[in-house]
Design a protein that fits this description.
Largest sheet: 6 strands, antiparallel
Distance between the termini: 22 Å
Number of domains: 2
Radius of gyration: 18 Å
Structural class: alpha+beta
Number of helices: 7
Order of helices and strands: HEEEEEEHHHEEHHEEH
Helix content: 25-40%
Shape: globular
CATH architecture of the largest domain: Sandwich
Length: 231
């Protein structure tokens, strides 16, 4: 089964921040919680600056990374269907400024004649496509291929291209990566060390630097998956 490297996009996503009414952004520092199981939220959020990691609690109290949001992406959308995000946690990955609205405000705005309703629908469809991609990779890829695909995917979404052709990402811990990939921290660490030894990446507490072109070439040689451009 051919697994694309990333979800192809026919057009760039709509800028939800440009369509939503302006609210006063709340500033959060790296590592700060926006909401969690102890303090569930009934609001919908949009990232104006920085990055936010969203996780959910699975069986045996294990955390699963649902998404890593960048501007102008939304999170906390469970509130739109009258569901408090009781098992969900949103934590700031990089210093962030976040806007929010009540679910009632979002639904009222989306019902008006505007582009907001379609933009919200597109955002949710893209999120579903991303989760489908991850489930397909989980079903057919070995762990080292999942690690490689996920690093390439994440670097395309939340990384910054450097002058030497590498891509720098936020300092995701091996535990966070294991929660995103669906493995254990020890196994992810093993493969991260291997990829570092092979020269495809470096990492420290300051961030992860990935040589995407080289890692994509390695993936092409070791996988039958079809590659598409990462966004």
């Amino acid at each position: 089964m051919a697994i694309p490297l990333a979800v192809a996009q026919a057009k760039p996503p709509a800028d939800l921040l440009a369509l939503l009414p302006k609210t006063t952004p709340v500033e959060y520092r790296r590592g700060q919680l926006i909401y969690n199981a102890a303090q569930p939220s009934d609001r919908v959020y949009a990232v104006a600056e920085g990055k936010v990691i969203v996780t959910r609690t699975a069986k045996a109290e294990k955390q699963v990374v649902v998404n890593i949001c960048r501007p102008p992406e939304i999170f906390g959308e469970s509130a739109l269907v009258n569901r408090l995000a009781r098992g969900e946690q949103a934590m700031v990955l990089e210093n962030a400024r976040v806007m929010s609205w009540t679910a009632a405000e979002i639904l009222e705005l989306a019902a008006r004649p505007s582009h907001l309703g379609m933009a919200l629908l597109e955002a949710l469809v893209r999120r579903e496509a991303e989760l489908t991609w991850r489930m397909e990779s989980l079903a057919v890829d070995t762990i080292h291929l999942r690690v490689a695909r996920s690093l390439i995917r994440l670097s395309g979404r939340i990384g910054t291209r450097q002058e030497d052709g590498s891509t720098r990402m936020a300092p995701l811990t091996h535990k966070m990566l294991s929660q995103y990939i669906g493995s254990t921290r020890e196994i992810v660490t093993h493969h991260m060390v291997e990829f570092r030894r092979m020269g495809y990446l470096t990492y420290s507490r300051h961030g992860i630097v990935i040589y995407r072109d080289a890692l994509i070439e390695w993936l092409e040689k070791n996988s039958s998956g079809v590659l598409t451009a990462a966004n």
